[in-house]
Structure formats: structure tokens, C-alpha cells
Design a protein that fits this description.
2 helices; 4 strands; 4-stranded antiparallel beta sheet
């Protein structure tokens, strides 16, 4: 006797609820994408692209100029605090409030040191600048003074096409 087995396959019933959408589960991590540069739309008269291009070149040139200015002014401020330079040299390159603070601090240092100053002028080890969204520049400067290294954090702001030191912290 032979036994026959009949299997019946049933297909699931399709619901007619409208257009079918396949949904994929959302990835738990961002999917890697190829970096594609953003291509701006073309302006009608070309003036917008020219303005954007000049602002980018002006900003990069201003950044290079800011790092040079930061290095020079922070070095000069360090020399003022060490008694190697008169404080009046900083009047053009600092804000009025910062100039007053540096003058007060230089006077205190002169009274404490009693006229003795270190013979070595500070040398710049490194300068790093970062332009902020507000248009200011924040700089970190490492200075080598004899056998010690000092760090300075400076904030520069653009005033009439020139960088002015508005904040200075030295360690």
C-alpha cells in the first residue's frame, strides 16, 4: 500500500488598501556616503558668485594676516610684561580696555622685579588661529622664553581692515 501525501500551499491574502509601500527599517547608525561637494545654483547676473568668491578669498587672507598679527602682538605683550619693551608700543594694536590692563600689569611687574629684566626675548614656537562665525579670530601662541615655554590665548577682532587684540590670557 502506498501512502500519498498531499500538501496544500496557501498564499497569504493580499489586502487591497491602496498602493503598497515597502518600508525599510531605519539604520541605527548613519550610512557612509561619498563626499560630494555642494554645487551652488548659478546666479542670474553672476554678482552673487563674485561676492561669495571675494568673501572667501578675503576671509582666507584675513586668517593668514590674523595669525601674523597675533604672533607679533602677543610677543610684544610678553616683552612688555617682562620689562623689555615700553607699554606704549601696544597702543595701536590693542583695545583701550586691554591696553589699560596691560599697562597696570606692566607697572606691577616693574615694581616687583625692580628694574631687572630677563635678557632673552621671547621666541615664537607656534601660532594657531581659528576664525569664528562672528568674524573674530581666536589664537593660541606658544612662546619660548629662555628655559621655559609660555602659552597665550588671544582674541583679535577686525576693526577698519586691521586686527586689534581685544583679549589676552597668558600662562
Amino acid at each position: 500500500m502506498t501512502a500519498t501525501v498531499t500538501t496544500r500551499t496557501t498564499q497569504p491574502a493580499h489586502r487591497k488598501t491602496g498602493p503598497q509601500r515597502r518600508s525599510r527599517p531605519a539604520p541605527s547608525h548613519p550610512t557612509p556616503t561619498r563626499a560630494v561637494p555642494h554645487k551652488p545654483s548659478k546666479p542670474v547676473n553672476g554678482s552673487e558668485a563674485l561676492a561669495r568668491e571675494t568673501s572667501l578669498t578675503r576671509r582666507s587672507a584675513a586668517g593668514a594676516d590674523a595669525s601674523r598679527t597675533a604672533a607679533i602682538v602677543v610677543t610684544a605683550a610678553s616683552e612688555v610684561l617682562a620689562g623689555l619693551r615700553p607699554v606704549d608700543h601696544l597702543v595701536r594694536w590693542t583695545s583701550p580696555s586691554l591696553f589699560e590692563a596691560l599697562a597696570r600689569r606692566a607697572g606691577l611687574a616693574a615694581r616687583i622685579l625692580g628694574g631687572q629684566s630677563s635678557p632673552r626675548r621671547p621666541r615664537i614656537r607656534s601660532v594657531r588661529t581659528e576664525l569664528t562665525m562672528s568674524g573674530a579670530c581666536e589664537a593660541t601662541v606658544l612662546l619660548e622664553e629662555g628655559n621655559r615655554v609660555r602659552a597665550a590665548a588671544a582674541r583679535l577682532e577686525l576693526l577698519r581692515e586691521r586686527w586689534i587684540l581685544t583679549g589676552l590670557e597668558m600662562a
